[in-house]
User: Fold this.
Amino acid sequence: MIEVHQLTKRYARHTAVRDISFSVERGEIVGFLGPNGAGKTTTLRMLTGYLPPTSGSARIAGFDIFRQSIEARRKIGYMPENVPLYEDMRVREYLKFRAQLKGLDRSATRRRVGTVLETCGLESVRRKMIKTLSKGFRQRVGLADALVHDPELLILDEPTNGLDPNQIRQIRDLIRQLADSHTVLISTHILHEVEMTCGRVIIIDNGKIKATDTPANLTQQMRAAGRIQCEIHAPADAAASAIHDLEHVKKVAPETLDDGWTRLTVWVDSGTDARERIARLAAQHDWPLRALFRHVATLEDVFVELTRKD
Ligand SMILES: Nc1ncnc2c1ncn2[C@@H]1O[C@H](COP(=O)(O)OP(=O)(O)O)[C@@H](O)[C@H]1O
Ligand SMILES: [Mg+2]
Assistant:
């Protein structure tokens, strides 16, 4: 449904997106995840034909986004980061206007506006002025706008940004419901969001793709890499160096706690475990040990690991 090939965008002196390639299959819900400034909006604006790339190409349902932009755009429902709504229009009137702008004839307009008002839970506010709506309802109007021409693909830029937890849940449920019959690419800087909604995640940072996988595989990968934490009553340097000498230990980071104990984070080779050997080492030195566990990686760890600025 989406094929991106070596897409690059340079602003005056800043490269916002560097040589990224990825694809999204029909029917997928893909999370486009990255910290603020990572290049998410820039990428989505290129995919939706609003921003010409510096180099590279993208196809939507087989149509080149620039050479066949009319056909490509017809396939896309785009909800931009800050939905530009006409404040002084009423909800239904606005959606009719948008439908006509997108080339729907009168009967299609009437039919589709009725459908999206219902789908997006906007019937009760259809006669209200947009400026009087809450942020949650405005987001729904943005979503209804994206859906009005009945596109196959939804591209949503941070759709839950600025909403309260209840509104977030409602928008998320709505997106999940839409995902039954649409392909969805949704950008966010909130991890939790993709874990709950997306079948696959593309992690972008500093304009580059850092990883693409299912949330489960990403955390699994991290888990296999292995990290152990222990708290031991011993001089930090001595404990760190003794543990570092153990087989399969790659790195040890000691930290002295307020109560005089030492906490050590221990990175080990993939598929190995050093807990038993650490316990034995502590016993040999007569170092009291009060905690020893394998760190269970979350998607957040993966994200932090991949987007860390060291
Ligand atoms: N019109 C622009 N001119 C210059 N730099 C820009 C422009 N738009 C975005 N940028 C820069 O490009 C980078 C990526 O921005 P953006 O795509 O908005 O990231 P995200 O949506 O992931 O937060 C940022 O460093 C941002 O400052
Ligand atoms: Mg953005």
